[in-house]
Structures are given as C-alpha cells and as structure tokens.
Design goal:
Shape of chain A: globular
Order of helices and strands of chain B: HHHHHHHHHHHHHEHHEHEEH
CATH class of the largest domain in chain A: Mainly Alpha
Helix content of chain B: over 70%
Structural class of chain A: mainly alpha
Strand order of the largest sheet of chain A: 1-2
Shape of chain B: globular
Distance between the termini of chain A: 89 Å
Structural class of chain B: mainly alpha
Number of strands of chain A: 2
Number of helices of chain A: 10
CATH topology of the largest domain in chain A: Cytochrome Bc1 Complex, Chain D, domain 2
CATH architecture of the largest domain in chain A: Orthogonal Bundle
Strand content of chain B: under 5%
Order of helices and strands of chain A: HHHHHHEEHHHH
Largest sheet of chain B: 2 strands, antiparallel
Radius of gyration of chain B: 25 Å
Number of strands of chain B: 4
Strand content of chain A: under 5%
Oligomer: heterodimer
Radius of gyration of chain A: 23 Å
CATH superfamily of the largest domain in chain A: Cytochrome c-like domain
Helix content of chain A: 25-40%
Number of domains of chain B: 2
Largest sheet of chain A: 2 strands, antiparallel
Strand order of the largest sheet of chain B: 1-2
Chain lengths: ~270, ~575
C-alpha cells in the first residue's frame, strides 16, 4: 500500500511541478502600481517625457490597446498615413492645440472617438494623477511633435480621495485655471463636446439653453456632480458617458458660478 | 455611550494595514482564502452530487447509488469542519491584516454577513440531520423526506455561496455611481449585491462546484480502487470513479458557456478591465488555462477509452478513438495559440508585428471558439460510444436513428466551422454574437442526440455485463491527474478574477495601499496556487483516510447488470 501511496504522491507532485514550471517559463509580466510623481514647477520636458514613457509602457496600461492596430489607434507609429500622435494631435480638432486635445482625450476619451474604433477607453483621470496625465501628454507630444507641457501646467499634488482612490482632479486650481467665468469653465471642462449652450456645442447630451426652466438649482448641481443619478428623457442610451469627475475638478466657487449661470438660462 | 462614540471613531480612523511574518500579508490571505474556497467548492459540489445519486437510488431502485451518496455525505461532515476552520482563518487574516478593506466591506455588507452566519448554522444542522438520519429514514415516505433534506442542504449551501459571491463581485464590479468619495454607509446593500458580475459568478461557481465535486469523488474512488484487496471492492470503486468522472466531465462541458457569460459581463461593465484580462498583462494566463483544459479533455477521454476495454462489444468503436484524439489534440493546439500579447518594441520587431504572421490567425476568438466547440463535440462522442458499447439496439428504427445522430453531429460541426470561418470577415461585435450560434448548435446536438440514444436503447440486447474492476491502474492515475488539474485550474481562475482588479481593493473605488498592491506575475501566482493545491489535497487525503477509518468498506455487490449513468 505504501508503494501505491508513494506513486499517487508522485503523480500529484509531478503534475503540480509541471504546471508551476510552465507558468514560470513563460514571459513574466507583473501589473505595476502607478507610482506617484513629484513633478514641480521646474520640471524639464525631458523629465516629463521620461515619466510619460514609463507610464505608457507600464502602469498606464496603454499598450494593451494602442499599438496593436485593432483596438485603438496607433500612437507611436503611423496611423493610416497621418503620422504619429505628436504629428497629428494638433490637427484633430479645430481650434484645439495638441496639448489640450491630448489632455482631454485622456480625461474624457469619449469626447473624441477616432472613426473606426469603439469607445472603449477608460477615463484615465480615474486611475492616474494629474501629474501622471501631464507626463503622458508630454510623452505623446514627443512622438513626432513638440513638447510644450511645462511645470506651470501641472497643479500641486492633490490629496488622495477617501478610500484611497487615485487623485483625479487636474488640480486644486480647478478647470480653466480656476476662472469663475461660466463659459470659460464650460469650455475648459469640455461640456460643449456634448451639450449645446448659447448656440455652441454638440447634441449628445441635453440642450442646456433653457435648462433653468426644467431643473432646480439643486438638480443642476446634482447633475454636474452625479451625472448618472437622473438621466434626462430621451438620453438614456448615453447614461454613463458624462464624466463623474467634476466634483474633484471644479472648485466650490466654480461649481456655484456654473449652477447660477445654468439656472438663469430659462 | 457618549464617550464611547469618539473612541469608536478613533479606532476606525486608526484602521491600518499590517504585515504577516515571513510570507507577507498578501500570501497569508491568498492561502487562507484559496484553501477555504477549495473546501467550500467541495462541500457545495458534493451535496449536489449526493442528492442526485440518492435520487437515482430511490427512483432507479439501485441501492448502490444510495450507499454512494451516504459515503460522500460522511466525508462532508469532516470537510465542513475544515471549510469553517479555513473560513475563520481567512476572516481573521482579513480583519487583522487588511483592516481598511475589512471596515469598508463590513460597512456595506454587515447585515448580509449576519444572514450568512445564520444560514451556515442552518446548513450545518441540516447536514447532521441528513447524515445521521440516513438509516432511520430509509424506506417509503420517510426516504422521500430524507431526500428533501438533501435538497434543503443544497438550498442553504447555494444561498450561502450567493451571499459570499456578492462581496467579491462588488470588489470587482462596484456599481458605477459609487466613487471613492461615496461613504460606504450610504450604499444600499441590494444596490451593492446586484452588481454586474454577481449572477454570472454565481452560475459559474455553481457549475464549477459540480465539476470539482465530481473530480474529487473520482480521486477518492481511484484511491480506494488502488487500495482495494478484493474484486468486489475494486468493482465498486471502479464504478464510483466512473460516476465521478462522468459528472465532472458532463458539467465541464457546460462550464465554458457560463464563462463566456461572465467574460461578456466584465467587458460590458468596463472594456478596459476585459482587455486587461484577455489581452493585457494577463494574456499569458489564458495560454496556461488552455493547456490545463487540454489536459482535462485528454485525461477524461483517455479514461473513457481505457474503460472501454472492460466493456464487451466496445471493440467495435475502438478504431474511432484515434480520430477523436486527433480532433482533441488539434483543438488544444489552436486553443493554446497566443494572439495578443504584451510585448516590447524589440519583441514586436522580432515577430514582425503585433501578431505572429502564421499562428496569429489561429489565436483569435473565432478559431478558439471553433476549437473548443469541436473538442466538446468529440468528448460527447466519446461518451456516446462508451454508453452504447455493450448494447445492440433492437428498435426497428435503430439504423435510421443512428444516421440521424450522425447527421446531427455533422450539422453541428458544420455550423461551428461556418461561423468560425465567417468570424474572420466581420466586425468584432458581430463576431462575439457568433459564439452564441456555435454554442447553441453544440448544445442542441448534445440534447437531441442524447434523447434519441435513450429512446433507441429501450429493450436493447446486452452484449455482456461491464466487467467493473477490470481496469488497469494507469486509468486511475488519470483520475488523479484530473482532480489535481481541476483544483489547479480553480486556483488559476481565482487569480484571474481577483487579479484583474490590479492595484484596487474595490475597482476604481478603493485603492490597495499595501506594499503588495502590484499584481504578481504568473510565475509567482503558480507557486502560490501549487502550494494551496498541495495543502488542500493533503488535507483531503487525510479526510479520505479518516473516512476509511470510520467505515472500512462500503461496497454493495452489484444486483443490476451493466449500469450506465443515465440509464
């Protein structure tokens, strides 16, 4: 019986050893934690590009889609004859320079879905800090273009949200450099990519021209902070599209200025 | 009370991570959770197996199934203790090493944890009643009541699993309106429970537990077979091993479909999570999984083919096995072909692109779905040949029936191939839909062919009784390999499910701030999985040994000729 027991033990151990060996022979890829960046006002473009390079090829997870040619546009190599991302980013949206376009593509990727691709990219502001986002912008610009991200673009590091979540705000200064001009906030936050107001903007989200006659100030505030809490009739299929990050991105003054401005549009 | 509230708040605020000596907190929690889950799968899968076996015993009037059911319920008693012990170890580790996460989860799911404990209590006492009442409630109406207890045991067990699943699926796919700023106390419990992957995981685990239970039953039977000293014992445990393997393989055939559903839900919840799982840093995991599945299919079929040696009349079908082997090997090779891999620029340059120029075409979902569906069809054909090996059908339409069965196989294979090839020429979203047609064709073939086969076997002429016990020892080692592989696969898939959260305790809501937040590579994971499997199987071996001490032999001499499962 001992011989049988030993044989069974041998079969079990041999099988386990085989599986362990195979799993150790294949390429070993670890999912890294995005490292917090301490990039101050005097950061050089080289430092930004280097940090962005590491993020792009590592913890940012960008290479899971970009560069394969099927899931997402190529960024570091030519995309359908338009060149690399640094060469083409400034031409993608009229009136929007490369830096603004790339930053918005990272924080609100559904605003500019390249034709022929599905809107699968996650909002990187949920997982990367503002410093990391700007480093990525610099790295992408460096691929065929000119790096114009500077230390002044990068806000001071923000505290991690409750629960240990990643910092998501582009900075304590708020959108549009902390301006309380409602239209500057609206443009800076990219609202007009989906909403129409004062005759400008898209039609993916509800028209805000007369939003004050439909919603109370409280509901407008809630719609900005928790966009999926209530969905406007006829726009159900777009539920989930509006970023949920404005609570971090806007300062208190900006939020109230925006609420007052929108509620006055009756 | 007024004084104690600030104190409690202070305690909550000071919640922090701690480390575990030598192996670290992640490894400690990993081992405790994994072994608890393995025992839990055993104690949830075996009752399903036991209650079905008891029903066959009652309604088929075959006492061997009743004894089989009782034999495994006895093992459950000890396994329950092991499950509870490892569950307690897991909870204590979590509460002491990962305090912030524990505090967060209990704030949301506290009431469901109380219900969980209550139902576990009921489940334990139902099990005691079920086992200790076996001989008392053995005949007539009382036996049916006893069977009802078995069903009740499964209801409690399934409910307990569903509750625990809600906690882990919430960590994977929390509802999208929950953000890092959402206070856990403000989250409604049903909102958290009804998350994207809760029901797919429930169903996947339910089926997986049956597979696992069957595999462990098969390993137990093979151990007892090899240790048997009499022909009667050998015959009994040979038969038991066959039943265990039959159940494991039958449920395994359905499992990938539940897996597709789960994968689809993950993609619908968050495309990036799905891509991380299938094409990101975890892409190599699926190559390992394909290898394991190939081992399962090959070992399961090998056991059946060897088993045909003890069935008079089976020699008619032996020439076909080599063709089945070819289909299985080719299918396994295609399924194991990598496609989208994390690769650096040098590797991409060496490969000449993001995909291999030749093999890349075999690595896509169209080819893989086609391969696995054909492997399932081949395995089903093996079962069918085994089933009808020692009978000659006497119904007048037997020949027509066999032709219809053959046509069904051909049509199902043609549908699988057609959509597999067409999948290369359509958009991804259309291609994903094709897998439904492929699966539908295979399932329809399995159902209709089985129904025809049962009808055709009515009054069939026997070519001789199955000579239970006349199996070479190598067939029994195949059952061991099956059990080890199923257990390892469970560990691997657990790593995949948990690992796709990456450095998040709760995906994009609560970050893992421990030094172990990075998700390890497959090599480290494999060492952890093998360690857990070894500990688990050693403990199961001990339980089997205890079971042998309690009742030296439970075999019942056969009174029914050549039984097949399903007859």
């Amino acid at each position: 019986m001992w011989a049988t027991n030993l044989r069974i033990f041998g079969v079990v151990l041999g099988t386990l050893a085989l599986y362990t060996l195979i799993a150790n022979k294949i390429p070993q890829v670890q999912s890294e934690v995005p490292k917090a960046l301490a990039l101050g006002a005097n950061v050089t473009p080289e430092q930004l590009v280097s940090a962005g390079d590491q993020l792009f090829h590592g913890a940012g997870g960008c290479t899971a889609c970009h560069g394969l040619g099927t899931r997402a546009p190529n960024l570091l190599t030519d995309e359908k004859g338009q060149g690399t991302i640094g060469a083409r980013c400034g031409k993608r949206e009229q009136g929007k320079d490369c830096k603004a376009y790339l930053y918005e593509s990272l924080t609100n990727p559904r605003a500019y879905v390249v034709q022929g691709y599905e809107p699968i990219m996650p909002e990187m502001g949920r997982t990367l800090s503002p410093q990391q986002l700007w480093a990525l912008v610099a790295f992408l610009e460096s691929n065929g273009g000119t790096v114009d991200v500077t230390g002044s673009d990068i806000p001071a590091a923000t505290a991690a949200p409750a629960g240990g979540g990643a910092a998501t705000a582009p900075g304590a200064a708020g959108i549009a450099g902390g301006s309380t001009d409602p239209m500057a906030i609206i443009r800076g936050a990219g609202c007009t990519a989906c909403h129409t107001i004062n005759g400008e903007g898209g039609k993916i989200g509800p028209d805000l021209s007369h939003v004050g006659s439909r919603l109370s100030q409280n509901l407008i505030r809630e719609s900005i902070l928790l966009p999926d809490a209530k969905t406007a009739k006829g726009f159900e299929k777009f539920k989930g599209v509006m970023p949920k990050t404005f609570g971090h991105q806007l300062t208190g003054e900006q939020l109230e200025a925006l609420v007052q401005f929108l509620s006055s549009h009756k | 009370m007024m004084l104690s509230l600030p104190l409690l708040q202070a305690v909550a605020d000071s919640a922090a991570y701690r480390d575990f000596p030598v192996i670290g907190s992640r490894a400690a929690v990993w081992i405790a959770a994994e072994i608890h889950l393995m025992f839990a799968a055993f104690v949830l899968g075996v009752p399903i197996f036991a209650v079905v076996a008891e029903a066959i015993g009652i309604f088929g009037k075959d006492p061997r199934y009743d004894r089989l059911s009782k034999e495994f319920t006895r093992l459950l008693l000890i396994a329950y203790s092991a499950t509870a012990i490892w569950g307690a170890v897991f909870v204590f580790f979590l509460a002491t090493l990962y305090q912030p996460l524990w505090a967060y989860l209990t704030a949301i799911f506290g009431p469901s944890m109380w219900v969980y404990v209550g139902i576990f209590f009921l489940e334990s006492f139902t099990l005691y009643l079920y086992y200790y009442g076996w001989d008392r409630w053995k005949y007539g109406r009382a036996k049916l009541w006893h069977w009802g207890l078995g069903i009740l045991l499964n209801v409690w067990g399934t409910t307990v699993m569903f509750i625990a699943d809600s906690w882990l699926t919430y960590m994977m796919t929390p509802p999208r309106d929950i953000t890092p700023e959402t206070s856990p106390a403000s989250i409604k419990i049903w909102h958290a429970i009804l998350n994207h992957t809760w029901m797919p995981i429930n169903i996947h685990r339910l089926i997986g537990n049956v597979v696992f239970g069957g595999a462990i039953v098969g390993a137990y039977a093979s151990y007892r077979f090899l240790a048997s000293t009499t022909d009667e014992e050998r015959a009994h445990y040979d038969w038991m091993g066959y039943v265990g393997n039959f159940i494991a393989m039958s449920a395994l055939i359905v499992l990938p479909f539940a897996g597709y559903w789960l994968g689809r839900e993950i993609y619908q919840y968050d495309q990036s999570m799905g891509i991380t799982m299938m094409g990101g840093f975890m892409s190599w995991l699926w190559v390992i999984q394909a290898f394991l599945i190939a081992v399962l299919f090959l070992a399961g079929n090998y056991y059946l083919w060897v088993g045909m040696g003890r069935i008079p009349g089976a020699e008619r079908y032996r020439p076909y096995t080599k063709f089945l082997l070819i289909v299985l090997v080719l299918g396994a090779l295609v399924w194991g072909t990598p496609h989208t891999m994390i690769a650096d620029s040098r590797e991409l340059a060496a490969m000449g692109g993001s995909h291999h120029p030749l093999l890349g075409a075999l690595g896509v979902m169209s080819a893989k779905n086609t391969a696995v569906n054909l492997m399932i069809l081949a395995t089903f054909l093996s079962f069918l040949l085994y089933r009808r090996a020692n009978i000659r059908q006497v119904v007048p339409w037997a020949q027509t029936g066999t032709r219809i069965q053959g046509a069904m196989f051909i049509i199902a294979a043609a549908i699988v191939l057609f959509f597999g090839i067409r999948g290369y020429f359509v958009e991804a979203i259309v291609r994903i839909g094709y897998s439904v047609y492929q699966v539908g064709a295979v399932l329809a073939c399995i159902v209709f062919v089985t129904v025809i086969d049962i009808l055709m076997a009515r009054g069939a002429q026997s070519l001789g009784a199955i000579q239970w016990g006349k199996m070479p020892a190598r067939s029994q080692y195949a059952l061991f390999i099956l059990a080890v592989t199923f257990t390892w696969l469970m560990g691997l898939m657990g790593f995949a499910r948990s690992g796709i959260r990456q450095h998040w305790h709760v995906w994009q809501v609560m970050r893992d701030n421990t030094p172990y937040a990075a998700t390890p590579a497959l090599g480290y994971a494999a060492i952890m999985i093998s360690t857990c499997v070894l500990i688990f199987l050693s403990l199961v071996g001990f339980i089997f040994w205890l079971g042998g001490l309690a009742e030296k032999s439970t075999f019942v001499p056969s009174t029914v000729e050549a039984p097949h499962v399903g007859h």
